[in-house]
Amino acid sequence: MGQAQSKDSKIIWTIGGGKGGSGKSFLTANIGICLSKLGSRVILIDADLGGANLHTFLGISPPAVTLSDFIKRRVSHLHEVLIPTEIPNLQLLTGAQDLLNAMDSKSVQKRKLLRSIQHLEGDYLLVDLGGGNSISVLDFFLVSDGGILVVTPEPTSIENTYRFLKSAFYRKLRYSVSSHQVKTLIDGAMDRKNEIGVQNPHELIKTVRGVNEEEAHKIEVEVETFQPNLILNQVRSRKDIEIGFSIRSACQKYFGIHLHYLGYVVYDQDVGYSIRRRKPLVLENAHSRAAQCVTEIASKLASRQQMSFQFE
Known about the structure:
By secondary structure, this protein is α/β, with parallel strands linked by helices. Helix content is 50%, strand content 14%.
């Protein structure tokens, strides 16, 4: 993919999943750099609205202008908040510590921000999400063309990822329907001990079909088109690598979700060194094992997107 895509073929990737500490910001920064080196215009968006730190991974001081300035109308357009970097084709848009509560309490502001992000001019927009599965985080995840879940081979991280995925999935289904009765059924399905006995999307569709055939069809479409991606980070063994395939199988079996396993990044001490030096790994030590893993994942994302454009 030697040349940038057209404006119309812009793609938004959101990187999230579970609690903090999985390496979302590290991967967002380094994947973004890899894509920019391929000649694409890349915008990195730090939507970790409670603790924005993506600039640190790029070796940039805390920006003077942030998303907060746009939300609070100190600037008129989102592009005024974009920060240039020393890396060609790469810009940064960062969040602010005081923005999370404002976003949760004022959904109008949230919708405005999401719309504005979608209108930014670039080939790739990579959105680094905060930890957890709050409504704001889920809505950012779902606004993308492709959501990427980052998980480490730890039981707590895997459990948090399943919880995040289920919350995002059912929120997406809820968005797709208009019937209050069906929305209530979807809300009920979130509880594993629900009285209606729904344990998975297939049972939900069957239940909804009994009350509204049209809404059941909408849910079927959403189930088919919801195809998130997975990156396994801090891998130390072959057994760890296999966890990605196990998660993919479990998502298919229990949710009917088609999860793409993009790849893994090995545990590498050079990652910690690069973060402490505030130097992106793929620039500082491109031949390190972790950098090679990240580069391979970025190439896979770019080539897969090129394929989808060819077949549209």
